[in-house]
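Record type: monomer structure entry
Structure origin: computed from sequence
Chain ID: A
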Amino acid sequence: PFFITLPTTQIPKSSFSTSSRELHSILLREIEEEEEASSSYSGSLPTELSELHADISKNWTILEGISGIGGDSGPSGSGATVRMFRKQGGSNGGKIGGGFH
């Protein structure tokens, strides 16, 4: 991530309360949307995602919710980490993989 940090003297004091209210409103909306989505979750992936998962799985091994890396026991506690390893090795036989959170 790329961050720019400004000294608080360069940020108008009035923008804190307005920004805080806007952030609060955005976060509440996102939480409500997540709660609505989870209540309608039937335990299976939507068709589009299921097809994408099947297509990717042809060439990649997909590991989801890895313990200690964003898993329930990890620092984020979210279980939202996915690692992927290509089933066929690289040109020199090396493993090809990636991780996402």
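Annotation 1: The chain has two helices and three strands.
Annotation 2: The radius of gyration is 20 Å.
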